[in-house]
Write a structure and sequence with these properties.
This protein is of the alpha/beta class. It is built from 11 helices and 12 strands. The strands form 2 sheets. Strands 4-3-6-1-2-5 form a 6-stranded antiparallel β-sheet. It has a 6-stranded parallel β-sheet with strand order 10-9-8-7-11-12, sandwiched between helices. The structure holds flavin-adenine dinucleotide (FAD). Flavin-adenine dinucleotide (FAD) binds next to strand 4 and strand 5.
Length: 448
């Protein structure tokens, strides 16, 4: 079975499992004994709430970084799905009380959680909903509310955990739809799965990372306000095998339990001694401190992740890399690896930057041309005087001119990584010039 067929089958299997786990609470309602004497709207509203809560519990699995789950799609797609589906999840859960209040307005009194008459099951429901409203508001408007990323991440985890835990407490408290062993087992299963996920993400995984530390071997300044880090495994073999173009999560100045990791693409080829290289551009609090790192400093690395790699497309006849700024890092990993392998495939690198001085890896890329069958096209927004190369942005007209003409699916595989506006524009341009959708692959650096 070839790589693409395996990915399609694996991807479809995960989607089916997702649907099954989301709809299981409803299926059990149908196959099992139905509670008598309830009007349709009340049952319907409960069904929506059940599906919403099951989806909410699955949200934890989507961000728990299971490599097999992410392999068929790539991490950015899984995070994108997590973001989009969370709104649908929230609306399903919200529809549950709204329908109840519309058809039984007397239940509105239960919203007052401070009234001693309000039962605990209702208090659980109201506080669960408040946690979910907070979750949505902080996530959708994080940047507008100027919430710093790491603080947001901790709050996000706490609100989501509270939302699901209180939702489960509400179901148990009501008890009406968990009145048979089958239904009870279903919800015990969900709760166990969810608590297991929390244990894995918060306790077991950080503990395993703690036992596999890396130390900084070298910190080197690069063009474009970036720094290259070489990390060496300490007392373990390290990550010796990864696909060039993949990424890892790095924790520095903190323990893996602190939940303060940041994602970075490998910029080097896999190393026989498990050494890892990353190139990081100064952007915010964490990245601005990379230059302060000292040789010998301990760092934790969780990876590899992602499917943005030429190794995923072994049958390609041509490879095209389109990078903007620091988006060059996964491309460098692929170019360095292909050079080490002595690969002779025709390669085209289209590399967009603001100006000539900030072109990260400029000199090394020049050197790689002699080791690879590589054509390099620099595109500069503000070129120096007498610049003979491309100017402005990567447009459909430029792509039409320079891309290989054969548009047969799987013939030319195109890798795209750069700032978000550039990626949006280039993805549209690629469709415009007739590149088949499955033949270009994007790595987005802004997951959230
Ligand atoms: C798959 C992937 C690969 C990446 N590879 C590289 C690379 O090779 N080189 C490079 O310079 N940058 C890379 N990045 C981007 C890098 O992760 C962010 O620039 C960095 O995390 C910003 O952190 P900060 O605290 O310095 O900036 P901040 O100003 O705090 O954050 C800027 C933005 O970066 C994102 N971000 C911040 N912290 C995190 C985090 N912990 N997890 C996820 N996103 C976060 C948020 O969108 C945030 O708004 C990559 C990102 C992803 C998703």
């Amino acid at each position: 079975m070839n790589v693409s067929t395996r990915r399609i089958l694996q991807g479809s299997a995960w989607i089916l499992l997702y649907l099954l786990l989301t709809l299981a609470p409803l299926l059990v309602l149908f196959v099992d004994q139905r509670p008598a004497g309830r009007e349709f709207w009340r049952d319907f509203s409960v069904a929506l709430g059940f599906c919403g809560l099951a989806m909410m519990a699955l949200q934890f699995a989507l961000t728990a970084r299971f490599k097999t789950l992410k392999a068929p799609y790539g991490s950015d797609i899984v995070y994108y799905f997590h973001k989009r589906i969370s709104i649908a999840t929230f609306l399903l859960i919200l529809a549950h009380p709204i329908l109840l209040f519309v058809f039984s307005p007397d239940l509105l009194r239960l919203l007052n959680i401070f009234d001693p008459q309000t039962p605990w099951r209702a208090r659980f429901a109201v506080t669960s909903l408040l946690a979910l409203i907070g979750l949505v508001v902080f996530s959708v408007w994080r940047k507008k509310l100027k919430i710093e990323y790491t603080r947001w991440r901790v709050t996000h985890g706490l609100l989501a955990t509270a939302g699901v835990a209180l939702g489960l407490a509400h179901i148990v408290g009501v008890g009406y739809y968990v009145n048979t062993p089958l239904k009870r087992w279903l919800w015990i299963g969900y709760a166990t799965f969810w608590v297991g996920l929390l244990l894995w993400v918060r306790i077991i995984k950080p503990f395993l990372l703690l036992r596999r530390p890396y130390v900084v071997e070298q910190v080197q300044a690069e063009r474009g306000n970036a720094w290259s880090l070489i990390l060496k495994p300490q007392g373990h073999p390290g990550i010796r095998h990864f696909q060039p173009g993949q990424f890892a999560w790095i924790t520095a100045w903190d323990s893996p339990f602190a939940d303060s990791e940041h994602p970075f693409s490998f910029s080097t080829a896999p190393h026989p001694e498990g050494k890892l290289g990353f190139t990081i551009k100064e952007l915010g609090d964490f990245t601005a401190r990379i230059k302060e790192m000292q040789p010998g400093q301990t760092v934790y690395v969780d990876g590899p992740f992602g499917s943005f790699s030429c190794d995923q497309h072994p049958h390609a006849q041509n490879l095209v890399f389109i990078a903007g700024g620091i988006g060059i890092t996964p491309m460098m990993s692929m170019l360095r690896t292909l050079a080490e392998r002595g690969d002779r495939l025709p390669l085209l690198l289209i590399y967009a930057n603001r100006d000539w001085e900030s072109v990260t890896f400029r000199e090394e890329i020049e050197g790689l041309r002699t080791r690879l069958n590589l054509t390099v096209l620099h595109v500069l927004e503000r070129p120096p005087e007498n610049w003979q190369g491309e100017r402005g942005y990567v447009t459909a007209a430029l792509l039409q001119r320079v891309l290989p003409t054969d548009r047969t699916p799987n013939h030319t595989e195109i890798f795209l990584c750069g700032p978000q506006p550039m990626m949006d524009a280039v993805e549209k341009a690629l469709v415009q010039v007739g590149v088949p959708m499955g033949d270009f692959h994007s790595e987005r650096f802004d997951l959230v």
